Amino acid sequence: MDLHKLRGFYAVVKYKGFTQASHRLRLSQPAISLQVRALEQELGRKLLDRTSRRIVLTHDGMALFEHAQRLFEAEEDIEKLFKGPHSLESRRLTLATNQSVAMHILPDRLSKFRRELNPVEVTILNLRTQDIVDGVVEGSIDVGVVLIDPLHPALEARPVIPYEMVLVTPKDHPLRARKRVSLKDIANYLSISYTKDTETRELIDLPFNREKLKTSISMAFGSTDLIIKYVSLGYGVAIIHDLNIDEANRENLHVRPLSRYYQREYVHLIYRREEALPATAEAFIKLF
pLDDT tens digits, residue range 274-288? Predict the structure, then answer.
């Protein structure tokens, strides 16, 4: 017997419905329905009475549920024994994100996280988005924090923090005096941007490419903080996301929204869709 199908049936009965079962197992309702239907076909018995609005077990369904209950309760006891509050796994959390999120978003949340779940060993990896997605899918990373929705079928992607693209220039730059700034205006000046292998660079270049405008990139960095630093030193203008903009660097920069050309985006938490997360990961996700 396929235990995945049995687990779907058990969850539907235990949590009194397909909707709650799908939330608990992180599967779609159609997937849960298919599991139950496939189990009935495998056993050759009807397990649930679907003519009622509530979950009603048939005689065979009741007998199967009693056996499934003993099986999965025993499984839970084993997990508590080896994954309880004193186990090594429960005291670890592996996060992966980029430098901007690690520097400007995580500190406050990790401070609260460590107050609530201390001691926990938190590993923070600074990776490219695709490497983060691959790591979460394969299980080497518990939670990823990325600037896009990866649209991966195996992952839950939850938008948590909005951000916008902005133009940053030195305080004395000629563009500051203009009431409106077009992409053509920006293209007339030396620019600093992200390296070509990043999703953010692709996002920035998109409207310029649509209007067939060529930008003059003088420097490219993998770090938003470095871009801000070199703009403030007068090496060029830049389009960046506003996650790194704070009062300290506003003293040396002029910041202009570019909502005419770029829609609002969101930081996303990503984690595996179809399996239970470690308690540390669940606790971290709740902070957003």
Answer: 767 888 888 899 888
User: Out of 1-5, 111-115, 236-240, which region has the weakest mean confidence (pLDDT)?
Assistant: 1-5
Could you tell me if 11 and 32 are in contact, meaning their C-beta atoms sit under 8 angstroms apart? yes
Dihedral in degrees, nearest 10, Cα atoms 103, 125, 159, 201: 80
- Check: CB of residue 12 under 8 Å from CB of residue 69: no
Q: What does each C-alpha distance from 157 to 129, 145, 193, 202, 285 come to in angstroms?
A: 13, 9, 27, 20, 11
Contacts of 131 (CB under 8 A, 6+ apart): 96
pTM: 0.65
> Largest Cα–Cα distance of the chain, in whole Å?
80
H helices of 44-178, in order, are: 59-82, 99-104, 106-116, 129-138
Considering the segment(s) 3-82 as one domain, its CATH architecture is: Orthogonal Bundle (1.10)
CA dihedral 248, 253, 259, 260 (to 10 degrees): 180
The CATH number, out of the four listed (3.40.50.720, 3.40.190.10, 3.40.1010.10, 3.40.50.300), of the domain defined by the range 165-263: 3.40.190.10
Asked if pLDDT for residue 88 goes beyond 50, the answer is no
89-162+266-285 shares its CATH topology with 165-263: yes
What are the boundaries of each domain within the chain? 3-82, 89-162+266-285, 165-263
Enter the CATH code of domain 89-162+266-285. 3.40.190.10
Going by pLDDT thresholds of 50, 70 and 90, the confidence category of residue 80 is low
For every residue of 214-240, DSSP letters joined together read --EEEEEES-HHHHHHHHHTTS-BEEE
Pairing label, strands 190-194, 216-221: parallel
- Find out whether 272 and 155 touch, Cβ atoms under 8 Å: yes
